[in-house]
Every structure is written in C-alpha cells, then in structure tokens.
Amino acid sequence: MDEQLHEMVREVVRSIPSGRVATYGDVADIARAPSPRMVGAVLNQDGHDLPWHRVLKANGTCAPHLADEQLRLLREEGVPSLDGKVDLRAYRWEDAVKEKEEPPGLW
DNA sequence: GACATGACCAGAT
DNA sequence: CATCTGGCCATGT
C-alpha cells in the first residue's frame, strides 16, 4: 500500500550526499510524503540500510535516542555539531534542491 | 471506529 | 531556552 511512499522516502534519504544533512520536513517535502512523521516512521522500519544519520529535525538536532550515534557518525563524515546541534545553514543539503522542487530522474 | 503512540513541525507564550 | 497548542498521519490495540 504505502509501498510507493516507503520507496520514495528511502530513495530520497539514499540520495543525501555525504557531508550534507536534511531535515525530516525536507525529506517529506521532496519525497512527497504526507507528513514529516512518515519519514520518521519509514526510517524506523526500513532505515537500517540507509544513511539515516543524515536526517535531522528541523532545528538541527536529532531525535533523542539517536543523538549520540547521529552526531558521532556525522562528525566522521565531516559535519561538525555544536552542543548537539548541526548548523543547517551551512550543511543543509536541501538548499541545493529546494528551488527545483523535485529531484530529477526520480520520476 | 475510538484511542494511544511516535526517528515531526511551526507558531505562540 | 522551556512549554504548550494544534496539525500532521501511519500503525497497532
């Protein structure tokens, strides 16, 4: 049923380049997800294969239980975090795609 | 169908 | 910065 959506979200997350991050809202927007909540839901189920650590909350922080792991992985990829927060202004991947509205070749 | 839960978001106080 | 409020919507009981 929501297979379509699942694949979409996964595809988007997979396309986040190393050293960049995106917010749940952004991913939801790009993947045409009905709501950001779904992104989290999908990652929770099928996110094991994906670079889920490149997905943060809208304020630049990560979900509580993942915080430690998240920040560590990001740091290894070259994304510094200050006080548990990432500077979205500088590392937000969506910035490059935002104007386009939709990633090419996805459909 | 009602109700609770969750890797969310934005605005107001 | 901390809370609250309302909205979001799939999943499970």
TrEMBL record:
Any Pfam family matching the protein: DNA_binding_1
Statement: the UniProt record of this protein carries the keyword Transport: no
Organism domain of life: Bacteria
Cross-referenced CDD domains: ATase
Record SUPFAM superfamilies: Methylated DNA-protein cysteine methyltransferase, C-terminal domain
Keywords associated with the record: DNA damage
Methylated-DNA-[protein]-cysteine S-methyltransferase DNA binding domain mapped to chain residues: 6-79
InterPro entries, per the entry: ATL_DNA_repair, MethylDNA_cys_MeTrfase_DNA-bd, MethylDNA_cys_MeTrfase_DNAb, WH-like_DNA-bd_sf
Name of the protein: Alkylated DNA nucleotide flippase Atl1
Organism: Saccharothrix longispora
Highest classification ranks of the organism: Bacteria, Bacillati, Actinomycetota, Actinomycetes, Pseudonocardiales
